[in-house]
From TrEMBL:
It comes from Vibrio parahaemolyticus. This is Recombinase.
Amino acid sequence: SRIRTDLGQGVGPCGEHGFCGANVPIPCYTCIHFQPWLNGPHEDVYHGLLNERERVKEITGDIQIAAVLDRSIIAVADVI
């Protein structure tokens, strides 16, 4: 099945043919079944995560809370 961003842009298919309850697309980047497209909008996803990390840090004042997104940020960067 095709995985899309919140804006409806495709980022790639899932290689698992069963049910997945993940809140796509962010968790997909750390999943072994994700098959990212070479021309997908991965940079947009990456910048969105960086902005969200900064927003969480500003709201909470806690870098450890914001750092929860780091694994996903690194996974998206690896795709880029």
